[in-house]
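To the wet lab folks,

You asked to see what we're planning to order before we commit. Fair enough. Below is the target structure as tokens, and below that is the sequence we designed to fit it. If anything looks off to you, flag it before the synthesis order goes out.
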């Protein structure tokens, strides 16, 4: 059995209006996607389905904590994530997900699997540069940080004396 089947939302028998679904997202969810950049996941995915006459509107809200590896020190740290994705689902002749926020599904469809959209909402909420908060505020004590400080270059760059004379021409701005 596919572990992502529990993210199927059958819409055929639902009445018009809003319907709420909630999923607890943990490491098993990301194991199914074979995604390894997140160490631990503890998130809640709230999916709101607004069924209209000819289409559906989905809003996927993600809130929780993930454990990431710092890009600078390789230390693990917890990051709070929050993200919202809106999706419009329409009916057509064949499946088409070429558009960013519009999904076209065949007319004979009776359910939709939202696992891919939950996955994308979580992954897109992770910062591009993952930096431990202790690095930002200077409180993290790490051997790697000490070594980086030792290797830091402290010499002044050699400036051509001709360019240095141009700096004398600068006058302070009057306020």
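Sequence we intend to order:
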């Amino acid at each position: 059995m596919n572990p992502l089947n529990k993210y199927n939302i059958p819409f055929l028998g639902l009445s018009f209006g809003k319907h709420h679904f909630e999923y607890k997202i943990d490491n098993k969810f990301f194991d199914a996607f074979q995604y390894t950049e997140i160490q631990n996941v503890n998130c809640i995915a709230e999916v709101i389905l607004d069924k209209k006459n000819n289409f559906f509107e989905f809003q996927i809200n993600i809130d929780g904590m993930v454990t990431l590896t710092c890009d600078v020190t390789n230390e693990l740290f917890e990051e709070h994530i929050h993200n919202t994705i809106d999706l419009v689902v329409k009916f057509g002749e064949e499946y088409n997900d070429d558009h960013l926020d519009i999904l076209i599904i065949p007319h004979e469809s009776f359910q939709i699997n939202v696992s891919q959209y939950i996955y994308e909402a979580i992954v897109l909420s992770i910062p591009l540069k993952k930096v431990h908060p202790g690095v930002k505020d200077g409180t993290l004590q790490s051997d790697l940080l000490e070594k980086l400080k030792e290797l830091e270059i402290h010499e002044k760059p050699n400036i051509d004396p001709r360019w240095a004379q141009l700096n004398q021409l600068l006058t302070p701005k009057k306020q």
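Structural context that might help your review: Helices lie at 27-33, 115-124, 133-137, 143-151, 161-166. Residues 115-124 form the longest helix (10 residues).

Thanks,
Computational group
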